[in-house]
Amino acid sequence: MKLLTLNCHSWQEDEQLAKIHYLAKIIQENDYDVIALQEVSQSIAARNVCGNMKEDNFVSLLQVELEKLGAAKYDAVWDFAHIGYDVYEEGLAILTKHSIIKSDSFFVSDSIDTTYWKTRKIVSVTVSYYNQPVTFYSCHLGWWDDEKEPFKKQVDHLLHRVENDELSFLMGDFNNNARMQNEGYDYLIQKGLYDTYKLAEKKDEGTTVQGKIAGWDENKKNLRIDLILSNQPVQVTSSKVIFNGINREVISDHFGVEAQINV
């Protein structure tokens, strides 16, 4: 099973349409089974075209590019968590080429006010992977030391939804540096989650953010905050950072993470 997670930083990037096309090209080449995306935005003022998706929805445009390239058909689930930059509905998405058994979206923040930028939501899908149900969560959580929306409470809300007897993967931007001890990353591991990067037989250096970005305005370190976690131990053949200028071109202020897992 091939997995990809990426915080897209959508509509904040120069040459955004070209980067959507490039992302589609890499998805086609690598033939991922499931893709979790964060910061998947659409304009508030744009025209509705399908359900809650509007004509400039990032993941909808990505699907169009995939179809143009003749890639495998990827179904998408998307929902928005909060208003971003006053003009966007910012959300999360999951794409998969496998049959979707069920999908969901739910708040993990105390706030459910979508006009508040710290409001956090999760999108999930359960797919049939060779007749086995596997659930995936696209996650974009808050910061460890946030007094208004503490990370620990968001994790607790999230894990309350995760069924222990069913294989699940939590993928995305956790906004906590895995290299920082006694904070959010350690809390995730203490709650019984497994880091596929740590389990991988082959891996690279792991950095997914370099320097300052939105939410990390004072950062001068190399961070590993984009993760693929599982609720059960799994065999991980490889974990690689992608879209970092070494393994493919940079297309966001975050690098992506791809994992090859034997299920």
What does this entry look like structurally?
With 263 residues, the chain is of the alpha+beta class. The chain has a single domain, classed as Deoxyribonuclease I, Chain A, CATH 3.60.10. The chain is 19% helix and 39% strand. It has five helices and 17 strands. It has a seven-stranded mixed β-sheet. The chain has a six-stranded mixed β-sheet with strand order 7-8-9-10-15-11. A hairpin with a 2-residue loop joins strand 8 and strand 9. Helix 1 crosses helix 2. This is Endonuclease/exonuclease/phosphatase family protein.
Q: List the quaternary state of the chains.
A: single chain
Task: Tally the helices.
Answer: 5
Percent of sequence in beta strands: 35-45%
Q: End-to-end distance, in Å? A: 7 Å
Query: How many independent structural domains?
Result: 1
What is the mean pLDDT? 96
The appropriate CATH architecture is: 4-Layer Sandwich
| Spans of at least 5 consecutive residues with low confidence | none
The beta-strand count equals 17
Q: What would the CATH topology be?
A: Deoxyribonuclease I, Chain A
The H-and-E topology, N to C, reads as EHEEEHEEEEEHEHEHEEEEEE
- Structural class computed from helices and strand pairing: alpha+beta
